[in-house]
Design brief:
globular, alpha+beta, 5-stranded mixed β-sheet, 393 residues, 3-stranded antiparallel β-sheet
C-alpha cells in the first residue's frame, strides 16, 4: 500500500524505518514539504532541497543546539564543532581545517591506494576459502575507513578491532536500547581520556589529528579536557561510520546492477561521478536536527520557537525540482547538488576525505575483485553484513 501524508506522523529516519523511507520521501517532496512527526518527543521536518539549504545557512533561526542528533547520544556534552553555532563554531573548526584540505588529503592517497588494494586482495582470498561467497562489509567497507582514519588520527593499531563495536552500539542501539549507547559512549570517552593523558606525558609533537586537538589554541587559550574529549568523540564516530556506510551502500548497488558494475569497470573515470550519485541516493546521513530559535514560516507552515526541526537531507536529495528522475540512480549524473554533506557553516569537515576514500576504494575493488552479485538479500542501509558471490569468469 502506498504511503500517505498520515504515515508521516510517525516518520523516523533510524533503523528499520530506512527500509522503505524513499516512499516517505516521495510523499514529502510532492505533498508535504513541511510536516510534523510524533517520534522522539515530536519534531517538525523540512523536505525540500532549497528549504533545507537555506536553513543550513540560517543558524540564527535554525540552531544546532543542543545537538544535531535526534535522539541525543547522551554523552553529557555538545559535540565540538557540530553542536556549536558561529562565531564559536568558526574558531573550533579552524583547529582541524588544515588537515582536511584537498592538498593534505592528496598526501594520504598513496596510503589509501595501498590499503584498498590489500583489502581487495583479501576479499578474493576470503571468497576462495568459502565457495566464492564473502561479506564485503567486514572484509572491505568497514576496515578501509577504520584503517585510514585511525592512521590520520594516530589511534594505536592494536585498538582498531574494538572500534566497530563501539560505533555500532552508539549509533545503532540508541533508539531502541539507549543504555547500550550510553555505556559505549562512556567507554569511548574513557579511551580518549587515556590517549590524551599518555600523549601529554610523552611530550613531543606528531602530525596527526589527536596532536592537533591536544595542542590546539582557541581564542588564545588551551582546550579544556572536556573540549578535547568532545572533539575526539565526534571525529571517532563520524570518521568511522559514514564512509563505511557509503562504501557498503555503493557495493550493495553494484552487486545488484551488473550493467552499472561493468560500466564502471570499463570506465573508471566515471567513478567520481558515481560516488556523488551513490551519496545523493543512499546518503550515510539521511537527516540532521536543529532547534528553531524564533517563530518562522516555511512553505506557508509556521514553526514555533523552541520546536525541534529535522532537515531531511535524504528527501531533499530526491527533490524533483532539483533532480531529473530523482529516484533513479544514474551513475553518470552531472550537476549533482546533493545535500549529503550538509551545507553552510556546518558542512561536513571531512567531505574531501570521505569522497577520496570512496573513489579509491571502489577503483581498487573493481580492479582486483571479479564480477560479483548479491547473495544475501541484505538491505541498502547501515554497516551490517553485505554477502556477495564472486562470479568465476
Amino acid at each position: 500500500m502506498a504511503k500517505t501524508k498520515a504515515d508521516l506522523e510517525n516518520f523516523s529516519y533510524h533503523g528499520d524505518n530506512l527500509d522503505d523511507i524513499f516512499e516517505d520521501y516521495e510523499v514529502m517532496v510532492n505533498e508535504c514539504p513541511v510536516g510534523r512527526s510524533k517520534r522522539y518527543g515530536g519534531f517538525a521536518f523540512l523536505a525540500k532541497n532549497d528549504d533545507i539549504f537555506e536553513a543550513e545557512q540560517d543558524y540564527e533561526t535554525f540552531s544546532v543546539t543542543p545537538t544535531m542528533l535526534l535522539p541525543d547520544l547522551e554523552m553529557g556534552m555538545p559535540m565540538i564543532p557540530i553542536d556549536v553555532d558561529p562565531p564559536e563554531h568558526t574558531a573550533y573548526r579552524k583547529v582541524l581545517l588544515p588537515l582536511f584540505t584537498p592538498m593534505n588529503i592528496a598526501k594520504l592517497e598513496p596510503g589509501m591506494v595501498e590499503t584498498a588494494r590489500k583489502l581487495a586482495g583479501e576479499v578474493v582470498e576470503a571468497a576462495a576459502e568459502n565457495g566464492g561467497v564473502v561479506d564485503l562489509s567486514t572484509t572491505f567497507a568497514r576496515p578501509l575507513p577504520t584503517i585510514i582514519f585511525s592512521r590520520l588520527c594516530g589511534y594505536p593499531e592494536d585498538d582498531w578491532p574494538k572500534f566497530d563495536r563501539w560505533v555500532d552500539d552508539v549509533l545503532y542501539e540508541r533508539t531502541e536500547h539507549p543504555e547500550i549507547a550510553r555505556a559505549a559512549s562512556a567507554e569511548i570517552l574513557r579511551y580518549f581520556e587515556g590517549i590524551i593523558s599518555a600523549r601529554k606525558a610523552e611530550g613531543g609533537e606528531r602530525n596527526d589529528l589527536m596532536d592537533k586537538i591536544i595542542n590546539a589554541r582557541v581564542d588564545g587559550r588551551e582546550l579544556t579536557l572536556d573540549e578535547m574529549l568532545s572533539y575526539s568523540y565526534l571525529l571517532f564516530i563520524a570518521g568511522l561510520d559514514t564512509t563505511a556506510w557509503g562504501l557498503r551502500s555503493s557495493l550493495w548497488y553494484l552487486a545488484q546492477n551488473p550493467k552499472a558494475q561493468q560500466q564502471l569497470r570499463e570506465n573508471p573515470d566515471q567513478i567520481p561521478a558515481a560516488v556523488e550519485e551513490f551519496l545523493r541516493t543512499m546518503s550515510p546521513v539521511q537527516a540532521m536536527a536543529r532547534t528553531c530559535m524564533r517563530d518562522t514560516v516555511v512553505q506557508g507552515e509556521e514553526i514555533k520557537a523552541g520546536e525541534r526541526v529535522v532537515l531531511v537531507f535524504g528527501a531533499g536529495n530526491r527533490d524533483p525540482e532539483i533532480f531529473e528522475n530523482p529516484n533513479e540512480i544514474q551513475i553518470d549524473r552531472e550537476d549533482n547538488r546533493h545535500l549529503s554533506f550538509g551545507g553552510g557553516p556546518h558542512r561536513c569537515l571531512g567531505s574531501n576525505l570521505a569522497r577520496k576514500e570512496m573513489v579509491i576504494g571502489i577503483e581498487e575493488f573493481l580492479k582486483q575483485v571479479p564480477q560479483f552479485e548479491s547473495a544475501g538479500g541484505e538491505v541498502w542501509h547501515g554497516v551490517g553484513p553485505l554477502t556477495v558471490r564472486l562470479i568465476e569468469e
